[in-house]
């Protein structure tokens, strides 16, 4: 039994016309001899409508009941789409989270998948040619409805593909793949035919919002090949797969950027064991995500410590720092909301030296000052002045030969 | 554990304001020491919206998927209402059909209830003070969603009350009870404080559309007392209960009418065994519901046969009759769509003679001609010219002392 999982997002099922396009994709796959699991999101706008409704009803809606409410969005999609399939004589049925079941923990609104009943799914695939599964939803051990958090339908699709050992998990969306960088700021951005899970994780976390990051982690863990492609064309998109030999040839796969950064520098804090914990524990306790952190070498028992937080968290972070300022001995606190992070990403850089040097020199040639550098095995990130973001992206894109 | 079931229809949960009124009713019952099962319908207009949507998607929507779609209506109601309860610190949770579960057969769109898991419900009632159950829905043995047909929420409520042996099943609606007749045509109609199941069945089938007929049958079978009352007042409404001694004092409880009748007379058909079957079998096969039937005594081997069908079925019925006309020997076929049925209903007439005589003479005094008479143990129905309907209802209402 050749099994294919196809996932269609909200814009792909927004109305009857869109759903008819989706039916064509499904029919084409059936013609190729596949059995299909089709995972659908709520029709675009529907989830927001339900959230607005709940907020009218309750200032802080009960999370468990919120999930019961939100789950109606995907339920509507799968019922309507199954009608379309059956009208065409296709053996199909809808499946809600609890019917599969997709077993999750009890974290309403952001549940984690614990288990999927593969036997039951395979049994149903022997009776039906297409199972139309509601994305985003599961159920806890008491059969209460849970949801997986925003964008959770990607995760549903990958998890179902993993459970069924599907040949491929196709994620259909309104863009036609993953690009070397944001085409809106770099006209020479190109579609990437193949990208490794790790690279995709770095790209996704930077705001290349094609795939939910959790779904990529899941795909990596279970080695599920993902094909990100457009509902509205037949062109191949981007394969997100395990790193392979052919990928090594490319040193760098893409350039990402993130403008949602604010920089804080603590000037001349004590350089002693435990000082970092004293700074970052209260920040973490306030649920503020710190991204880059650098500490300069010590001068006379004092050091400068610089880190970045999301722009929206800057005020809160400064308030926390103010309270511990004397405790950590900071002589001054500098804050700058006008910064951005540009990143060079590629699994190839593991085997190539000099990637950092190329990046730094390219930025230097444009007189772009680097405030912070942070590196991982497959990524080099630089914090720069926000106004240079676009220029920096285009410069790096060209410097690593991604233009051609 | 004192258990109360309260059911609120679509107009009672139409919006936030209405739901807040419903919460008051629930709070008042909690204050009296009850554990509650609250059964909700979809917000008014929602079911029609979903049906319209499905019909846009498919000329004949798949019944199973239609139920998946329709079930979102009640799901939305119970989620939102549970939020309201929890905001007030009430221990509550929503329950969908499959979570209770309300086990049904596989007749999608018009499923019959087979079983309700009482143990599970009782367990949940020990943990929660209010269970907010989605009306109208159940699930089949494969956990597929089913719905009970229009107005099915009444049946859900009565079935849950029966399963839990609840003290009372309160049906809240936008009218304040069952009336001796339609107040729109008889200003002297009065609210009936108590009515027997059998009387209610006769009233309901005549278009006193306060309670779904199936729910009354269910209540009668399991002896569930029903209290029909208004969401928007605190006045007691009408108790629908088993016939008791106190009821016998009233000879007649109410006057019903039905304008959706058309009369057909087959003139001079053969009076021989099997002739009725030859007439009514093809009509039944066409799913046409025949109501009253009378046959006059035979004259020279010939007889007249008169019966009524819904006005909308008149043309179809005549077409069927036309085909068998020579076969049954009918010399003529007369049809009249301008007829109505008025009925006098009361369990008391079992023990009182002369009810029919009073009815006939009252109608005669107004010069209203009776075309057909049909009687049951607790009902006398007369077919009359449609234009006299209102006059006949008022006349009978007064003749049986219901005005005072």
Summarize the structure.
The structure is a homodimer of 404-residue chains. Chain A folds into two domains: 3-174, Acetylglutamate kinase-like (Carbamate kinase); 255-399, VC0802-like (2-Layer Sandwich), CATH 3.30.2130. The model of chain A has no long low-confidence stretch (mean pLDDT 93).
Please tell me about this protein's structure.
- The structure is a homodimer of 404-residue chains.
- Helices cover 36% and strands 26% of the residues of chain A.
- Chain A has 404 residues and is of the alpha/beta class.
- The first copy, chain A, folds into two domains: 3-174, Carbamate kinase; 255-399, VC0802-like (2-Layer Sandwich).
- In chain A, the strands form four sheets. The first copy, chain A, has an eight-stranded mixed beta sheet, with helices on both faces. In chain A, strands 14-15-13-16-18-17 form a six-stranded antiparallel beta sheet.
- In chain A, α2 (46-57) runs antiparallel to α3 (63-87), α5 (152-164) packs parallel to α7 (213-222) and α11 (355-365) crosses α12 (389-399).
- The interface between A and B is large, with 37 and 37 residues.
